[in-house]
Design brief:
- The protein is mainly alpha-helical.
- 70% of the residues lie in helices and 0% in strands.
- α5 packs across α6.
Amino acid sequence: MNTPRIMLTVLVALVPGLAAMVASFGVGVLWNLTILSISCLGIEVISLRLKQLSWQNIYLHIQDCSALLTAWLITICLPPNIPISSLIIASLASIGLAKHAYGGLGRNIFNPAMVGYAVLLVSFPQILAQWPAIPGEVDGLSGATLLTEFRYRIGITVEEFDVKFAVALAQQEIIALCFALGGLGLIVKQIIAWRIPVAMFGGVCICALFGYDQGSSSSAGGAIFHTLSGGFVAAAFFIATDPVTHPRRAKQQLIFGAMIGTLIYIIRSFGSFPDGIAFAVLLANCCTPLLNRVATHARLRSIDEVRDD
C-alpha cells in the first residue's frame, strides 16, 4: 500500500473511536476536528510553499493525508470546544515545528500530534482541563478527567472510586473499546506493528502489580484502570505505532513499547500531570535513533561473524 492509502486506512480506523467520543462528549469534538483539519492543511500548504514547491507538487503532498491524520490524532486528545486560537497553535507546533522544521514527512524525530498536544498542555492547562460533566453523575467530572479525579482523590479507596464514577468509567471503557477495534483492524491489515501496543500494555500491567496496593486510598491504580482510562488505548494503537518515530526492528519495538507503558504509569502516579501519554511518547521518540543504531550494529556484527565462519 502506498502512503495515501495507508493514511486513509488509519483515518477510517479512527472513526469508531471518534464517534464514541462524539456520543459521550458532544458535537464539540467535531468542532475541534473541523478546525484542526483546516488549520493543519493550511499550515501544510504554507510550509510547502515556503520551500518553494510548485502548486502541483503541493497538491501531490496534500494528497498523502498525513496532515489530516495529525489533526485527527490531536483531536482524540482534547476536550470538546477548544478555542480556535489554541487549535491553531497546536497545528503550528505539530505541522510547522515537529514536521516541516525537520524536513517534512519521514524525517521528523518526534510524533507531530504529540508535539502539538504537549504544547497545548503546557501552555493552556486550564483549557485542556475543561471536560464536560457526565450526565447523571453526582459531583463528577465537571472539568476533570477520570485520571485527575483518581490522582487527587482524598481518603477514597479504589472500590469506592469505582462506585462513585461508575457511569464515567463505563463510558471511558466504551471509547477505549472502539479505538481498540480500529487498532486491531490495522494490525490485521499489517499496517501497524503489533509488538508496540502489546509491549505498552505489558509495561503498564507490570508497573500496576507494584502500585496497586490492594486498592487502598493511596493506591496508584490497577492495570485495568490505567489501560482503559484516558487515551491509553488510542495511543497504543494509533500514536506510538507511527512508523516514522518508532524503531524499525522487532526487538527494539518491544523495548520502545514497554518504555512508553512504563513511563505513562510513572508520570501518572508520581509526575505533575495526571496523564503522561504525550510526554512518554516524546521521551521514547528520543530513544528511537539509539535503538535503531543498536539494531544496526548488532546486525553488522552477526554478518561479520557469518563471514568469519
